[in-house]
Every structure is written in structure tokens, then in C-alpha cells.
Write a structure and sequence with these properties.
The protein is mostly helical. The chain is built from 6 helices and no strands.
């Protein structure tokens, strides 16, 4: 109609982000436990990581085997804090994803994620975690192959997970492939051995008392 104001074309509403895949407690532990095993076997530890690192890992393994998933997660949380301590050599990418996140201090208003709707924020976190899982699975299989572990059946699962992630995102099919990788890694990679802590030398016995003449 002449003289009518221009109206922007109507656009279809954006589709809501996909709902994150539910994470069973045993899978939640496995997806951190298996890559932590490889992280503790990296060459930077020279075959013997400090017991401050292996002790929480061993506790997590024992709790996982006993289906005590809350305690397994607590032990993994402690390990992630230990990984971030400055006394260790920095973990290489992507294994540094296993460290507790260290953020620069900032006011909440500076964090752009706070402006997202809760569903969008959760979907973003789920996608980021899936990206980390894919990178960790790829690096773990690569390390295992370089150290003469049999992982020929796991390499295709990583490739399939990457393809699925590109088309479906962090879907159930994606995690089916990732979990096969973690189960294989946990079954085939050896347990890390901690450095032997030498006991201090025993104190020399006091000299015998000399009686007075």
C-alpha cells in the first residue's frame, strides 16, 4: 500500500537448543576416570607421578569398581584440583581439560554467558564438554597406539563420534561411541604407578654413656 511504513519480513522463531543428553552417574565418572588414567601415564611424569596425584585417582578407581559413584566423583574433583597446582609440569592439551577450571576474577556482569537463557547456557556447557570429550578421546587413543597398546578397534569409534558430533551435536549416539573408547582405554591402559617415597634414614643410635672414672 502506498505510503505504508516498511515492515521487516517475518521470520520463523528460532528452534530451541537441543536438550542435553542425560548423563548416568557411572558414565559421568567413566568420562573423567579413563582420560585421567592416560594423563597420569604421560611421559612428563617419567613413569612415576607423585602419590599426591595417584592417591585420589586410586580412590576414584576403587569407588568406581564398587559402584560408589559419589565418592568416585569426589576423588576425581580432588584430582582435578591437584592437576591445577603450580608445583607440577603443566598438562599438555587436551589433558589440561581435566584440571579444575581457573578463571580470571571478573564481575558477573562481564560474563556473557550470564545473559543467556538457562536452557541456552546449559546447552552451551553440554556442547563444550562434548568437544573436550572428543579431544580427550582422540589424544588418549593416539597415546595408547604410540605406546603399543591395541586400540585398532577404538580409532574408528573416535572418527564416528566426530562425524556424529558434526551433524547431531552431543547426542546419545555421540556418547555411545565415546563411552566405548573410555571402556577400552580403562581396560587396556596400565594403572599409573606413583613415585617411591624414600623413608628418611634412621637416626644413629646415641653413643653409649661413659661412666665416670
Amino acid at each position: 500500500m502506498p505510503g505504508a511504513p516498511n515492515r521487516p519480513p517475518e521470520t520463523a522463531p528460532e528452534a530451541p537448543p537441543p536438550s542435553p543428553v542425560a548423563e548416568p552417574p557411572e558414565k559421568k565418572v567413566l568420562r573423567r576416570l579413563a582420560p585421567s588414567r592416560i594423563a597420569l601415564l604421560l611421559d612428563q611424569w617419567k613413569g612415576a607421578p607423585n602419590s599426591d596425584l595417584t592417591t585420589p585417582f586410586e580412590k576414584a578407581e576403587a569407588a568406581y569398581a564398587a559402584a560408589d559413584y559419589p565418592n568416585a566423583l569426589s576423588a576425581l574433583d580432588l584430582l582435578s584440583v591437584r592437576f591445577a597446582e603450580p608445583r607440577w609440569t603443566t598438562l599438555p592439551e587436551p589433558f589440561r581439560f581435566l584440571r579444575v577450571p581457573i578463571f580470571a576474577p571478573m564481575p558477573p556482569s562481564w560474563n556473557p554467558d550470564n545473559a543467556l537463557a538457562p536452557a541456552e547456557r546449559e546447552a552451551k556447557r553440554a556442547r563444550q564438554f562434548a568437544e573436550e570429550q572428543l579431544a580427550l578421546a582422540d589424544a588418549s587413543v593416539t597415546w595408547a597406539a604410540a605406546h603399543q597398546l591395541e586400540v585398532a578397534d577404538l580409532t574408528p569409534r573416535v572418527a564416528e563420534a566426530r562425524t556424529i558430533f558434526g551433524t547431531e551435536g552431543a547426542s546419545a549416539g555421540f556418547y555411545e561411541r565415546i563411552d566405548v573408547v573410555w571402556e577400552g582405554i580403562r581396560a587396556r591402559a596400565p594403572l599409573p604407578k606413583s613415585a617411591t617415597v624414600r623413608a628418611p634414614p634412621a637416626a644413629a643410635p646415641p653413643p653409649p654413656e661413659v661412666g665416670e672414672a
